[in-house]
Specification:
Number of helices: 8
Radius of gyration: 22 Å
Structural class: alpha+beta
Strand content: 5-15%
Strand order of the largest sheet: 2-1-3-4
CATH superfamily of the largest domain: N-terminal domain of the delta subunit of the F1F0-ATP synthase
CATH topology of the largest domain: Peroxidase, domain 1
Oligomer: single chain
Length: 185
């Protein structure tokens, strides 16, 4: 079974149990913590997903690292995933859980890519505008990419709006290449 199917099944199971126990929001915050820890510490993520490291060692580290910071359900879930030998898809599972949570809560994730960090006022305006367009709650995820020179790229689901300077320059380059003007001197 591929990683995305495994991730979906584990994430959906955790979501269902968290809803049944009425601690969905707490488990969501736990999964945000786990995601951020794995993303910010690539050495830790590699250690956890390594087949060479014994499962008992991984579980012990998870208990020490997250034990008092997360719900018992979340910790038990991390241990279950490790015991089932699926540590290599921890990050996929966590991301899928967050996505499922957003669906349950009616929240759409909008990714804003810009050349520089945007201020809170501008992000708030983008969030309100996108929320009005979609009719859903919007969570803004910001990404910095200096290659776009200026402007921004907005991604919502399968939709992408590219208002970057890089995109405008590339359009001009294509137009110049396709210029059909034939001077008659």
């Amino acid at each position: 079974m591929n990683g995305s199917k495994v991730a979906y099944r584990y994430a959906k199971s955790l979501l269902d149990v968290a809803q049944d126990q009425k601690i969905l929001d707490k488990v969501y915050n736990d999964m945000i913590l786990v995601r951020d820890t794995l993303k910010e510490n690539p050495d830790f993520a590699e250690y956890v997903s390594s087949p060479v490291v014994k499962t008992a060692n991984k579980i012990e580290i998870a208990k020490k690292l997250f034990g008092k910071k997360i719900e018992t359900l979340s910790l038990d879930f991390l241990i279950l995933v490790a015991n089932n030998g699926r540590e290599d898809v921890y990050l996929q599972i966590v991301k899928r859980f967050i996505h499922l949570y957003d669906e349950v809560k009616g929240v759409e994730v909008a990714k804003v890519i810009s050349a520089v960090k945007l201020n809170k006022k501008l992000l708030s305006r983008i969030q309100k505008h996108v929320s009005a367009l979609t009719g859903k709650g919007i969570e803004i995820v910001e990404e910095i990419n200096e290659d776009i020179i200026g402007g921004y790229i907005l991604k919502i689901g399968d939709y992408q709006y590219d208002a970057s300077i890089l995109n405008n320059v590339q359009k001009l380059q294509r137009e110049f290449k396709e210029n059909l003007y034939d001077p008659k001197f």
